[in-house]
Amino acid sequence: MDGIKEAAGLVEISLDQERDASHGWEKSTEYELSKQTELILKRKLPLPKALFEQYSHLECKSFMGIFPEIHRAWFTVDNRLFLWNYATGSDFYPFEGIDQIITSAAIVEPRPGVFVEDVKYLLAVSTTVEVMLLGVCFSGPSVTSEITLVPTQISVNTDNVAMLKLVGSRGRRLFMAGRDGCLHELTYQGETNSFWSLGSRKARKLNHSKSAFSSLIPSSVRLFFSGDDPLIDLAVDDNRDLLFALSEYGNVTVYDISKPNRAYKIASADAAADAKRYSPSSNVRDRAFLNLSAVPAQSSSTVNLVVVTTLGERVYYHMKTSRASLRSIRANGFRSTPPLQSEAFRPSVHTSAWIRGALFLADARNGDNDTLIAIFPEKHPSSRRTDYRFKTPFVPVELVAETALETHGGFAKAWAIAEASRPRQNGLKTNESNPPREVIVLTNSSIHLYTRVEPRDHLEELLSSRGSDAELDALFQHYGNKEACAMCISLAADRASESAVNADIIAAATNIFFAKGGEPSFEEFEPEQPRQRPRTAQFDIGRPSTSPPPLKFSSAHDGICLHIARIVSPVWWTHITSSRKPEEYQALNLRTETLLSVREHLVATINFLESSSTMLTSKRSKSQQRTPNRPANSSLQERLYKGLLPRRQTDEALRLEQISISNLKMLAEKTAEALAMMNLLSEHQFHRLAASLTPSVLQELVRLRFCELIFSETGSHVCNALLEALFAAYSDQPRVTEMVSEALRERAPSFFGEAEVSLHRGLTLTRKAARATGPEAAALASEAVRELKPYAGRIVDLQGVCNDLRTAGALAPMAELTVAAAAAGETTGDVELVDNACKCAFDALEILILAEDKSRDRVRDAMLKILMEQGSDALVDRLFSFLVGLGPLGAEELFKWPSARVEKYLQDRDVQLLWRYFAKHGRNVDAAVVLTSLADSEDSGDLNERVSFLASAVHNAKVASASGGDSRATSLLREVNDKLDVAQVQLRILEELRRKHGDAPDAAQACDELSKKLLDLSMLYNAYARPWELWESELDALRCASYRDDELVKRLWIDIIDDALSSNSRSSSPSSLKATMASLGRDFHPSAAVFPVPFIIEVLERHSMERRSLPAWRESEGWVPWTMVEIGVPRRDILAAYGSILEKGNVYQETGWESGSTLYLVTIVTDFISEWTTSSVKSDSSRRELSSVVSDVSRIASICRGVLRSFSDPTAFDMVKNLDSLEARVEKLARQT
């Protein structure tokens, strides 16, 4: 493939040079009179006698011209129109349905959807009063078949303006050059109820040179005020959407026709002034303007328009676009009158045609008979050095040839010159930018078909006449050695199959090719200035220490390359399909005759190279036999250097050239095979095959050029896809597929070798397996995979193949195929193939895993085993990622395959699953270690997730410790527990900070710091809890640190309780305080260091008493002891706390309570014991608890009675009685327990 790529590079350089050689005519400054025949009259056909009979009835005007599109000449005699088929000399067709004198005619293409399919063209005919359209129909598929003109009823009034020139555009528009100096256009619209055409009311004439208001002026007035500078010619540049108009006085106007029914004047030029500026010595009175021609983009990059004068002069124009998208036109070249064989008179040109660099002039200076002057662009090779690394230098000249128009008596006047239908060079389509080879000249008496004599024709003539060596040398010198060698190959190879060619001429051409083809050589270098060698380099006899000089191939090699380039030029850079948009209809963009013709000439070239291989090899043998002269008095080293080195260089150059010629031959062979393959695809409805491709392959196809089929990976991929589509189309017709296979093996073995045969066989078996059932399907699928596995990387529609295997139920074989395809993709670096292979396997696995169908567990496990055991590391990693991506079900499948590979993958890619993997397989200590690491990791999430990791770590450590199987478990459990405790303190700090200081400017940063990582307890307390006055968190930190500071704890609780009662809404009801105390109590109880029950009850009751006047507080009286019960404080401790408060005596004096607090506290205690006893009756557990604290109840009752005795209030007496009753009741309940 590398050799073919190198050869393709050389061919493309030759193609570039050919393209450059076809350009540059606009830079020519010299004329050269031809010394040999350049034009030969190939055919002369007299005009029909019936036409001359019509001329006898001429009353007013007669015009004539050529329609090369339909191979017709047209003639008008007053109001009668005649068409004549000059290709066959027959079919003289008259049309007499026109009333007025005809002034001009043109062939245009019809708008799609307006006419029936039989109307292939429209013939626009202009008379003195109207322009009408006639439908052109043919009796057969060819335009040379019999013609019929059908009236379409489409016409427009010309308003008495004669239309001197009609021209159509590729956009199916018809423009008209008016004698009034204006550009007109005929437009028409479709009508659903019409058959041949539209009604005339649907057609209209647009004037693009004047405003719409001018149509309101009567035509007679417009004619009176119109100028006397009529438009005489129009030219359309379809590629650039431009129209050029030329007036009689040389005014050039440029119109933008990119928008339908619009033509905007964008630039203008004065050709008369420009011609005078370039040629001030010419007589202006002798100069008139004939026509103008738009220059295709492929013919020149600097000239867009050519204007021709009656003196044979040419003015070149270039369109320039500014930054503001404004365009201007300016003259950028001028070619003066060409030199003629007779210098006595200046030319008097009345008809001309400029065609892709060539100019044809009908000169009337000789009176009755015109002379045809042909000016061809030509490039002679310069004397400068040429090399494939540089553009081949040429000197552009223009060759002038004259030939008299032949006539049989009378006179011959040329009235029209046109290019014949595009010819073929040696049977091949010519370069789109080359000058024409055949032109038609219409005279007043006959049709002349002239053919230009090609360089190869000169060589053939010289060989057939046994010209002298001097003449042969002159020909080689004139055209250059490379061009002359290419001519020799063309004669020897392309003409070998033509019986009309003398065998002696072929032999002579072959001998001349080798005799004058020269030898390759390296560029000269200076031996006296050697390149400095590294110090470590050793002296090597015969090898100079200079850089390798560039190789210059021989003319024979370059001629071969040029010849192949010319053969493949019609197809090389051509897109395979007709459209660049995948959604559109995709026809083959290569015509059958082109495919066959190019292949035929390539095969002839291959045969020539094969038959000449002996002569090519003999060059090297002869060079090895040469012995260089060695002066006797020279030193040994000098003799070795000057003698041995050149011979070795010559041998090396010959060896490299032979390799290059061999590569060129291989390129020609593969190109011929590609042409044969494309022709075969064309025979089997290429558009259907293209439509069946996958979207990605179709996208590649529409961008693909023919040359890429030969040497690119994309081309190979698309070829495989097309062949797969071809065989799939005939999957149910085995005889057809066998015939196609045989044809491909015979005509295109490079594209359909053993690998392709196996692929075809495997794909056929796959499709059969999809249609079969049971054991037969399994057997077919297994056999198909055996065929496909070695070439899995070349399967284009891998998804389709896998779908067929899935349909056949062959999931395990499908897994083997995807493994092979993925391996092939990894080898070649084809990421897309690897992706497709993995997708095919993983899609099937996903269905099996997510369906949770126990009956298919065996199939699922078989697939997983194949993928894990046979897949590469990259594939297995993809499999692991796929399973993880499926969520818990996929992870469970992954965990079923314990291995170091899985463990390493999880360690590198998903540590959060690693601990689950360890836990799944009983490695709880390892799971706890991973979880602890996750909690400390910077990559972990927020603080809640870290705390969750630590909680799971504690659980795994406990499981490991309970099992006793790992000695690390106990110490790890202790360590993780402590870490979790501190982390929970940190979480409380974060939550309290957000709750209390969420709006503070610095709080966000502090929260961010707390969320990012775990901190130690000292940092949490000193840097966050204490500075931010996070009292709850301070208590939690003290608890975690087991630190006791009673005064600090009391202060913190006072702050917490005050904060809970800080707002009016909170202080109006104890609910908020009750909720806060219940929450904190559950967190901190039974730690007496941070939850001092007596102190907390005392503070809470003081606040309750102070607010007892408020309804909500009064209704909630007694909530404190029951909140303690809710927290989990034993009732005994609650009673003891109240007893310690009452034992202080006058509590309001010592504790700051209000007067009456004693009675309030006794009431709270009494109510608490009463409710307790009431609930104990209903609950055995409460009754047992009550019986265990009889002494405590008796003690608190005794304390209360002692306190109440100091009061003389009757209420106190009632309370004492109530206490006695309660005490007795408690004792009774205790006895019943």
TrEMBL record:
All residue ranges annotated as the Nucleoporin Nup133/Nup155-like C-terminal domain in the record: 554-1179
Top-rank lineage group of the source organism: Eukaryota
Pfam families: Nucleoporin_C (PF03177), Nucleoporin_N (PF08801)
Gene Ontology CC terms: nuclear pore inner ring
Domain Nucleoporin Nup133/Nup155-like N-terminal: 42-448
Keyword Transport: yes
Subcellular location: Nucleus
GO terms under biological process: protein import into nucleus; protein localization to nuclear inner membrane; RNA export from nucleus; transcription-dependent tethering of RNA polymerase II gene DNA at nuclear periphery
Organism lineage: Eukaryota, Rhodophyta, Stylonematophyceae, Stylonematales, Stylonemataceae
GO molecular function, one term: structural constituent of nuclear pore
Residue ranges of the region described as Disordered: 521-550
InterPro entries referenced in this protein's UniProt entry, alphabetically: Nucleoporin_Nup133/Nup155_C (IPR007187), Nucleoporin_Nup133/Nup155_N (IPR014908), Nucleoporin_Nup155 (IPR004870), Nucleoporin_Nup155_C_2 (IPR042537), Nucleoporin_Nup155_C_3 (IPR042538), WD40_repeat_dom_sf (IPR036322)
Keyword tags: Nucleus, Transport
Keyword Zinc: no
Listed SUPFAM superfamilies: WD40 repeat-like (SSF50978)
Protein name (record): Nucleoporin Nup133/Nup155-like N-terminal domain-containing protein
Similarity comment text for this entry: Belongs to the non-repetitive/WGA-negative nucleoporin family.
